[in-house]
């Protein structure tokens, strides 16, 4: 048996696109759906049963910076709770949580309800401030039974969508009167834009001795969606439902939801979560403390409201895309995705156009917005800005739409290569480069009308190597292909020679011969692929190709230092 963090941290995120996504009313999607626990007749000790269960799946960002919290009988550690539960199919699990009222614990929805495991938990014990002493778990404030649980309506009706992965528990004892309670802290977007923002992640990790509380320092979070946070704190299974806590005021701004090899995720505490908790607590006659967002420091600029296109100071950048959403190469959840682009211009804009998946939006202002309905997959977004003098700038960026927010374009959340996507990318790069340099057509047709070439005559195409097979990467083929692409492109753009010698047989835009530069590595010494290195190379090649062939910028700005065949002013 795996603890719940492992069981759902990935599984719930890679579920197939639900047909029921549009069923629930947006107005009521956060209404609490409650579960009243019947009288507990099972006398088994869940803590003892789970003591022998150890976790195997986790995500730590080296170095492991987690610190054990002991003793745990002082605030705020006292308000962090160990949860031990059982689902109807007999599955035992552990989670974490935090007391936000004397009898109310905040945790993750997947710690309370799982359709796959039979629905609602049938038993759940809660021990705030639990600690380990020798061979047993110490509970300085006692152990309470859950008498009621609640999850947002959206968690059940939308097939356990991570955006609704927050839950509440009512206890049979007011243990929070002894431990103290943590306030909720809905933070504004400025905080998440601050890469120096520091916080603590609390919980009971499954890879440590059972019943020991740990905290992990984190710095910097990012919004994956308005509801979901991506974080770099060390989080492992068993910590699901644990709080992300601010250093000032010990306010809960997130609930740990899921782990993956590349990122960890939390459900953001926003207005919907606050109202969900207040609604549940109101029925019990209790109150939930809420911290107001911190005011900006003296002299801090007000949040940008791009109503008018800001003028750019440099005449070398008369047009620039100052912001695009979702972020370039990011992963978002399926369904309705808001896509936008904001332009800065020195002269008034004539038009800004946004396109993705056959859908289009236009604006004459600095910001264009498109609400697109996207199924899982990879999408390329194109934005074009044109000012009243006729000057144009194009930018292109890719996003991944997946139920697993740790999915990338070329590797999944487990670090496994996406064979079809990697092979398709390699094929497109090789074929486009062969055409551009030598006029070798991949399909025997003349493509000079839509893709520039330095060749004067048409040549037949040649087979393209396959990088990934059913057995994984072909290391020799992958290294040879990536090396050839990188070295040829460096030569073509800047005259950087891979062997120090001139190559008149390969066209170049370089005005002088430049010495070789290193490439790779893409594999470890023992032959294991390095996903980050392979991803970086494929991404840089795609972005450079788009600029060189079509003048489509990878960062929203013009690049006079890189040649392009696109018409430019």
Key traits:
single chain; alpha+beta; Thrombin, subunit H; 3 domains; 6-stranded antiparallel beta barrel; 18% helix; elongated; disordered N terminus
Describe the structure.
Strand 7 and strand 8 (119-120) form a beta hairpin. 18% of the residues lie in helices and 30% in strands. The protein is of the alpha+beta class and 569 residues long. It contains nine helices and 34 strands. Helix 7 (419-438) runs parallel beside helix 8 and helix 8 (475-494) packs parallel to helix 9 (531-550). The protein starts with a helix and ends in a 16-residue tail after the last strand. The strands form nine sheets. It has an eight-stranded antiparallel sheet with strand order 3-15-14-19-20-21-17-16.
């Amino acid at each position: 048996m795996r603890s719940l963090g492992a069981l759902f941290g990935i599984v719930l995120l890679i579920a197939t696109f639900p047909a029921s996504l549009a069923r629930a009313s947006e107005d009521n999607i956060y209404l609490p759906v409650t579960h009243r626990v019947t009288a507990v007749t099972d006398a088994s000790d869940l803590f003892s049963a789970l003591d022998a269960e150890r976790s195997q799946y986790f995500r730590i960002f080296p170095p492991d910076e987690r610190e054990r919290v002991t003793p745990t009988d002082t605030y705020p550690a006292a308000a962090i709770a160990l949860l031990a539960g059982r689902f109807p199919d007999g599955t035992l699990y552990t989670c974490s949580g935090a007391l936000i009222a004397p009898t109310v614990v905040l945790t993750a929805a997947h710690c309370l309800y799982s359709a796959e495991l039979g629905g609602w938990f049938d038993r759940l014990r809660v021990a705030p401030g639990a600690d380990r002493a020798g061979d047993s778990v110490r509970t300085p404030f006692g152990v309470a039974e859950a008498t009621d649980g609640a999850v947002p309506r959206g968690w059940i009706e939308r097939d356990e969508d991570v955006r609704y992965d927050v839950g509440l528990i009512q206890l049979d004892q007011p243990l929070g009167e002894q431990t103290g309670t943590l306030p909720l802290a809905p933070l504004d977007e400025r905080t998440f834009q601050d890469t120096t923002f520091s916080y603590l992640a609390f919980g009971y990790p499954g890879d440590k001795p059972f019943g020991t509380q740990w905290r992990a320092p984190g710095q910097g979070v990012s919004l994956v969606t308005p509801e979901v946070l991506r974080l770099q704190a060390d989080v492992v299974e068993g910590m699901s439902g644990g709080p992300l806590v601010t250093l000032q005021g010990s306010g809960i701004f997130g609930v740990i939801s899921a782990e993956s090899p590349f990122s960890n995720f939390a459900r953001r505490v926003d207005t919907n979560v606050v109202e969900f908790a207040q609604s549940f607590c109101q029925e019990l006659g209790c109150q939930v403390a809420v911290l107001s967002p911190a005011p900006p420091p003296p002299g801090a600029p007000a949040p940008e409201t791009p109503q008018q296109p800001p003028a750019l100071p440099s005449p070398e950048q008369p047009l620039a895309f100052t912001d695009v959403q979702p972020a370039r190469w990011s992963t978002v959840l399926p369904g309705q995705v808001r896509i936008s682009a904001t332009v800065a211009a020195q002269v008034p804009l004539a038009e800004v156009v946004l396109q993705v998946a056959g859908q289009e939006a236009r604006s004459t202002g600095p910001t264009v917005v498109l609400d697109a309905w996207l199924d899982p997959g990879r999408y390329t977004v194109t934005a074009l800005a044109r000012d009243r003098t006729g000057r144009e700038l194009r930018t292109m960026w890719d996003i991944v739409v997946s139920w697993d927010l740790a999915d990338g374009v070329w590797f999944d959340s487990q670090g496994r290569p996406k064979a079809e996507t990697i092979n398709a990318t390699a094929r497109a790069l090789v074929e486009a480069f062969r055409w551009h340099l030598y006029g070798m057509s991949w399909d025997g047709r003349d493509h000079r009308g839509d893709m520039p070439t330095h060749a004067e005559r048409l040549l037949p195409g040649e087979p393209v190597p396959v990088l990934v097979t059913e057995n994984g990467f072909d290391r020799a083929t992958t290294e040879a292909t990536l090396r050839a692409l990188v070295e040829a492109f460096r030569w073509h753009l800047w005259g950087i020679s891979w062997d120090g010698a001139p190559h008149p047989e390969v066209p170049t835009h370089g005005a002088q011969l430049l010495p070789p530069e290193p490439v790779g590595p893409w594999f470890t010494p023992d032959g294991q692929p390095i996903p980050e290195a392979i991803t970086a190379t494929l991404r840089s090649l795609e972005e450079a190709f788009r600029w060189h062939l079509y003048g489509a910028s990878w960062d929203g700005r013009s690049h006079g230092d890189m040649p392009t065949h696109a018409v430019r002013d």
